[in-house]
Amino acid sequence: MDVVGMSLGVIGFIFGMSALARVQALEARLKKTGVLTADDTQA
């Protein structure tokens, strides 16, 4: 059972890193087009 848990953890980590990269790319694209400003990124 440890192998299953570790595998799911690794898959979740990879999914999370992929999602973070996509969000950062989207944020950069929106800033480039002028939709977002530096003040808009504060949450």
Could you walk me through the main structural features you see in this protein, from its secondary elements to its overall organization?
- With 43 residues, the protein is an all-alpha fold.
- The protein is built from 1 helix and no strands.
- The relative contact order is 0.09.
- The model has no long low-confidence stretch (mean pLDDT 91).
SSE arrangement:
Layout: H1 2-33
Topology order in helix (H) and strand (E) letters = H
Q: Helicity, in percent? A: over 70%
Query: Whole-Å distance between the termini?
Result: 39 Å
- pLDDT below 50 for ≥5 consecutive residues: which ranges? none
> How much of the residues is beta strand, in percent?
under 5%
SS content category: mainly alpha
Our count of helices gives 1
Question: How many runs of DSSP E, i.e. beta strands?
Answer: 0
Assign an overall shape: rod-shaped
Overall residue-averaged pLDDT value: 91
List keywords for this structure.
rod-shaped; single chain; mainly alpha; 43 residues
